[in-house]
Design a protein that fits this description.
CATH architecture of one domain in chain A: Orthogonal Bundle
Number of helices of chain A: 27
Order of helices and strands of chain A: HHHHHHHHHHHHHHHHHHHHHHHHHHH
Number of strands of chain B: 21
Largest interface: A-B, 23 and 29 residues
Number of domains of chain B: 2
Oligomer: heterodimer
Helix content of chain B: 10-25%
CATH class of the largest domain in chain B: Alpha Beta
Bound molecules: adenosine-5'-triphosphate, magnesium ion
Structural class of chain A: mainly alpha
């Protein structure tokens, strides 16, 4: 049962190491150890250190004495703590509500009404997902900031007043941007929930003589309640974890939330208050885990109500008459706010020698210099290079590891593989900022050549995104008939050869789609990098933040445009491949 | 060549435990064509997969050649890639992302046997010729018909020059005509190559036509091993002889009334009269038996025949004309006997006919073995 026993068993055969690698059990144990270590060691350090008096020079205290509740007392005594907690909950809840308004509204229009152009919405709703949170936040500050914000300028011009109507550095503005940002995923999930509902349940009510509104409120909504609650909860958890928008829009106004507070006390305060960081980190992890477990439970309930409808078996569409165009207008308004407006602002600023509001003088000074700088300014070049290295390694590595994990979980179905299935999902519940902090503490605790290099970022992002990668690979493995692999085994191929020659080629479209998705995610997500970066390991997301703080807004613009362009291409390729997956499954 | 001893395998599922294979023991001599025959779910595939190493039994021993491949006692379990067994799957398991050439060459590519690519190419060509698929090397695997896939799967298994060839219902996905043709082709091919084969099927005709030996399985156990002729003419119990499985049979209960001598023949009194038959070993006077007689050995005539054996007068209950013959049910007292009459006999319902069964064409089973097979 143990790794050692299987090691000995495998080595005792004539084939030695080759035999070892072909031993399923050994590979299973090895993969479980790696996944378990990555998922649990950072968590362990967070918990352990919560009960220790950690300070610079004494980061890790392995002794079984010296436990203390000091950190908890510090947090309890800190009035900022409760303010932060309140902010976080309000921010997360309000953002979720905005996301439901947009995402839910559009899902209903697309799935249940006869609004024109609704069928292209699925294609368009992917576009906002390409933009990293940092870029959205930057764009909206440029639009809403009290003095130079373009929307305020517009207001000044229209009304002649000098009082700004919008305040970028405020909770409502944060909620607006984060809500817009969460809407597409909310739309996708609610759309799926609406689609899998058995239309005959509604039809039965119609034939029983119920009117449209009655069916909506008596049948459709009650049936959707578990799914609505589950999706709401998930988005709420995401709102608790999010970092970029609160960083850019909340911090300057003194509106801390969990993520920015951890960042602040770990990276900005000197000396860092690690002790409080541990407690905040643990709290947000516990909240996220509880939320995700509850979410799974609710989606299980939702699943009982759902039936996957067959082809051409669509629920009845509601004729909304004159409101049809208004509904389409609503979708367009969302896309305008979520994509077009922010992109135009960034595009505009990317051609300016220095940032200024539009004017005749500004238009005549347009330049391509900022794009040139992307390839000449040493720090930007380094950030691009680091990002390319980080994202490539993380995406390919996570997908390959996830393939092994999925193969074991889906194929072997032993007790050990069930443990593996559970372990691999642990990082899913750890917010990026807490993950970054935990990795930082782990690698500060003992001498190693990894801290301060790009490799700590690689490890951290790899761990964070492994669960996401398994979503692609679980489905990919399940599509391969077991006999195709067994035929390889009886032909004399060992486990690794079978994975390399049969499993991976057959899964290739899902793997490439998954790798591209994770590549994009690594470029987008800033939180862990913000905690872990050093001048040498700066990546694009942290570079944007640095440029922003330096006031180099035109460079922020050009770098953002580059990221959005690259992201668009990756997303299109990834989606094309995901669609092809179905074809491969059939042969 | 293959020696399986007391093999057992169970599956634990959500709905409980399934005893798929229970204490299976058999021997396959070198060059034999050994068939596992039995109804769906009786554990044939599981037994075969244990031989290939794809399933790990709980108990027993598997020896191939002179290598112990599995032994619960010695704690040995050789993984499938080192068993040197070629296998043809029911679904063929042709890899859809490869051409025919790569599908067939795969075993040589993964086990470097010191062959260069030209030699591999030559071997693949020869093997494809064997299965009459020459020239198909560059065809994508997705563009093959069922029969062609079956041939490619055979070629892949043969190319390894395996010590044993394992086949799990390789013909069951083909249409009836092709199946009949492939039956002969496959048998001749493995015979020519002198391969030791274990074959799985639920089709008794296929088993009879191809095998040198058949093991009949039922609910995880082997109930009889013998040549096709033995299985047909001397079924070990009612299950083996039972209708719809290894052909049709008439059953009568009887009692040994005497004369069990060194010859093994005895006199048995049945509801159909008194018969002289070979009785099972160790059977003595007074023992209860079950007698089976295949429909085709039941003699029927309009006039009372002379001579011995059981002769009874019966009435045709139902005669069905099937072209090659009449399938006739004749009622004799409380019993119904099925017989086959030539197409020119012109029998109709209600006809009175004499039925004669010769003891030498009946097989006799102990009553207790019948009871155990019935559960
Ligand atoms: N992986 C498995 N998990 C659980 N039960 C199994 C598994 N494989 C086989 N069984 C069960 O074991 C029993 C024997 O199955 P097996 O596949 O050996 O039957 P078979 O004789 O090959 O039947 P068929 O002619 O239908 O292929 C069946 O009851 C089957 O349901
Ligand atoms: Mg089977």
């Amino acid at each position: 049962m143990t790794a050692f026993a299987s090691l000995r068993g495998a080595l005792s055969t004539r084939e030695g190491w080759a035999g070892l690698l072909s031993s399923r059990r050994f590979v299973l144990v090895l993969v479980t150890i790696v996944v378990g270590a990555l998922a649990l060691i950072p968590l362990f350090f967070l918990v352990w250190d919560s009960f220790k008096d950690v300070r610079i020079g004494n980061i890790f205290d392995p002794s079984l004495t010296n436990f203390t509740l000091k950190n908890f007392r510090d947090v309890a005594a800190d009035p900022r703590a409760f303010m932060m907690l309140g902010n976080s909950f309000i921010f997360a809840f309000a953002s979720m509500t905005v996301a439901f308004l947009f995402g839910g509204g559009i899902a209903f229009i697309v799935e249940r009404t006869n609004a024109p152009l609704r069928n292209v919405a699925y294609g368009l709703m992917f576009i906002p997902l390409i933009m990293p949170g940092m870029i959205k936040a930057v764009a909206w500050v440029l639009l809403l900031s009290p003095q130079m914000g373009l929307l305020n300028k517009l207001w000044f011009a229209i009304s002649g007043s000098a009082d700004p109507v919008f305040q970028a550095y405020s909770l409502p503005a944060m909620v607006w941007v984060e809500g817009l940002s969460m809407s597409p995923l909310t739309f996708l999930m609610l759309g799926a929930a609406l689609r899998t509902m058995d239309p005959s349940l509604e039809e039965a009510a119609y034939t029983a003589g119920s009117g449209r509104a009655r069916v909506l409120f008596r049948i459709t909504l009650p049936l959707m309640t578990p799914a609505l609650a589950g999706i709401g909860l998930l988005q709420f958890v995401r709102g608790l974890e999010t970092f970029e928008v609160p960083l850019l829009m909340g911090m300057p106004a003194g509106i801390p939330v969990f993520s920015t507070q951890i960042y602040w006390i770990v990276r900005e305060v000197s000396p860092p208050e690690y002790g409080i960081g541990f407690i905040y980190g643990l709290t947000v992890i516990v909240l996220a885990m509880a939320g995700l477990l509850l979410y799974q439970k609710m989606m299980g309930r939702a699943g009982q109500y759902a039936t996957v409808t067959g082809k051409g078996y669509r629920p009845r569409l509601i004729d909304i008459g004159r409101w049809r165009w208004a509904a389409t207008g609503f979708i367009l308004f969302f896309l305008f706010c979520a994509v077009i407006l922010p992109f135009l602002v960034l595009l505009y600023s990317s051609f300016l020698p220095f940032y200024q509001v539009p004017s005749a003088r500004a238009w005549s000074a347009l330049t391509l210099q900022n794009y040139q700088e992307l390839f000449t300014r040493p720090d930007i070049v380094m950030a691009l290079k680091n990002t390319a290295i980080l994202s490539s390694i993380v995406s390919v590595g996570a997908v390959l590891m996830a393939t092994m994990v999925s193969w074991m979980v889906v194929r072997l179905r032993t007790k050990a593989s069930r443990i593996l299935d559970g372990l691999v999902f642990v990082p899913y519940a750890i917010p990026g900022i807490a993950m970054g902090f935990a990795f930082m503490i782990v690698f500060l605790s003992f001498p190693n050549p990894i801290y301060g290099t790009i490799w700590i970022l690689v490890l951290c992002y790899f761990t964070s995104f492994l669960p996401t990668a398994t979503r692609f690979t679980h489905a990919g493995v399940a599509q391969i008939k077991a006999e195709l692999e067994e035929a390889s085994a009886v032909s004399g191929a060992n486990l690794l050869t079978t994975l390399r020659r049969i499993v991976i080629p057959l899964m290739l479209p899902s793997l490439v789609a998954g790798a591209l998705y994770i590549f994009l995610l690594t470029v987008k997500v800033m939180s862990a990098a913000a905690i872990l970066f050093t001048p040498k390991t700066i990546v694009v997301a942290t570079m944007l933040f640095q440029l922003w703080n330096q006031g180099s807004i035109p460079q922020v613009g050009s770098l953002s445009v580059l990221i959005i362009m690259a992201g668009t291409i990756l997303t299109i390729v990834s989606r094309k491949l995901s669609q092809r997956r179905a074809i491969v499954a059939e042969v | 060549m293959i020696k399986v001893t007391n093999l057992s395998k169970r599956f634990v599922t959500d709905r409980g435990e399934v005893k798929a294979v229970v204490g299976v023991t058999f021997d396959v001599p070198k060059g034999a064509f050994f068939t596992l025959l039995g109804p769906s779910g009786c554990g044939k595939s599981t037994t075969l997969r244990c031989l290939a190493g794809l399933e790990k039994p709980e108990q027993g021993e598997i020896i191939i050649g002179d290598t112990v491949m599995y032994s619960s006692e010695k704690g040995i379990s050789v993984p499938p890639d080192r068993r040197d067994a070629g296998m043809v799957f029911q679904s063929y398991a042709i890899w859809p992302h490869m051409k025919v050439f790569d599908n067939v060459a795969f075993p040589l590519q993964v086990k470097s046997k010191g062959l260069n690519s030209a030699q591999i190419r030559e071997k693949v060509k020869k093997t494809l010729e064997l299965v009459r698929m020459e020239g198909y090397e560059d065809r994508p695997a997705t563009q093959l018909s069922g029969g062609q896939q079956q041939r490619v799967a055979m070629a892949r298994a043969l190319l390894q020059e395996p010590r044993v060839l394992l086949m799990d219902e390789p013909l069951s996905n083909l249409d009836a005509k092709l199946r009949e043709q492939m039956r002969v082709e496959v048998r001749d091919l493995v015979h020519r190559l002198g391969l030791t084969t274990v074959y799985v099927t639920h089709d008794q005709l296929e088993a009879f036509a191809m095998s040198t030996k058949i093991a009949v399985m039922f609910e995880g156990r082997i109930v009889q091993i013998g040549t096709p002729w033995e299985i047909y003419t001397q079924p070990a119990n009612k299950f083996v002889a039972v209708a719809d499985f290894v052909g049709l049979a008439n059953f009568f209960e009887g009692k040994v009334v005497g004369g069990v001598g060194a010859s093994g023949r005895g006199t048995i009194e049945t509801t159909m009269g008194t018969l002289e038959c070979t009785v099972p070993e160790g059977m003595s006077t007074g023992g209860k038996v079950l007698i089976s007689a295949r429909p085709e050995v039941v003699q029927v005539s309009r006039e009372k025949p002379s001579g011995g054996g059981a002769i009874m007068l019966g009435e045709v209950e139902r005669a069905i004309f099937l072209g090659e013959y009449f399938d006739v049910r004749i009622r004799i007292g409380a019993e119904t006997v099925r017989a086959r009459l030539g197409p020119y006999f012109e029998v109709k319902d209600g006809d009175k006919l004499y039925v004669q069964i010769a003891g030498s064409s009946c097989s006799v089973m102990r009553s207790e073995s019948v009871a155990s097979a019935k559960q």
